[in-house]
Amino acid sequence: MSDHDSGQGPLHRLRDMSPAWFTLAMATGTLSNAFWQLDLKPLSALFYWLNWGIYPLLVALLMIRALRFPQALSRDLLDPRQIFTFFTLVAASCVFGVQLSYRGWLESATTLLVVAGVLWLVLGYVSFGVLAFRNDEQRADVTHGGWLLWIVATQSVVILATQLFHLDGESSALMALLLFGLWGFGVMWYAIFITIFFNRISFVPLHQRDINPVYWVVMGSAAISVDAGAELLSLLPRTSVWQSAGGLLEAAVLILWIWSSWLIPTLLMLDGWKHLIKREPLNFRPTVWASVFPVAMYALATARLASAEHFRLLHDMALVVGGLATLAWLVSVAGLMIWLKRQWYQRRSSA
What we know:
Layout (H helix, E strand, L loop, with lengths): L2 H4 L15 H16 L3 H28 L1 H8 L9 H16 L3 H28 L15 H16 L8 H31 L13 H17 L6 H38 L11 H21 L2 H39 L1
Helix pairs in contact: 2-3, 2-5, 2-11, 2-12, 3-4, 3-5, 5-6, 5-7, 6-7, 7-8, 7-9, 8-9, 9-10, 9-11, 10-11, 11-12
């Protein structure tokens, strides 16, 4: 069945479904994991069960889209503006896997890790090929920070794998090396992409349409690198070689946390410029969850760092940021409900 033929059915709207919807599962799952780390188990359970409905639903809708509208899916996969949004599937799978691992569902979490790892590997080479062979100055745009979803997906794999495989002991030295290398790979690409990002906003005229929720991933990718590094740090083998590597890792984690902290006022300033100075109205779009996820991830990373460094002030800060992330999640849900209501009225009026 072609895209054209199937486009007139009740599932017509799935033709243009953005993979960015998976940021909803990322934000919800990360809030659950943050509250788990902060020992607020009832709140963690609430977002856990919400994600049990959100993540499987999004996977099912994406599979239906792949079957009913394969040409539309292929078009997005070959578009330099869209290809990196597919990494949200990898990140959402790993975040959900971490939720499951906390509650003892280790086999299910391992399955998600394998699926996410394969997707990460395939999408990594596909996205690199798309940038190399199908990109041009008119189509590429990294101001929104979407390219950094690759880093988010990379560190998500590190976090879930570290949860599942205890790295202490001689037999797991190879796993420690692989995960440490994967974490370093993500940080390396972050350094490359963040340079391009700041070059873009500093030396190319900036318009309010360039500022959208996805550019919060610039902070979120640094925060998740902190979380992955802190998680990995506590599980490295206790040998002289790894102790040296651990010192480097600990320094990098602290620097990345400071950097992500500095980015928050910077991103708020850009939002203020768009909505207060340029008076761009607030409108709901699927990518709004890409701004909720980084705030939730910053809360989780801060909580993880507080636990690793036994720093009470950071724990209190994580509680405050977790509350703000929850508020942002609720506001986004309200925006989603209003958007769905408008979509329903539009369908009725055009019927």
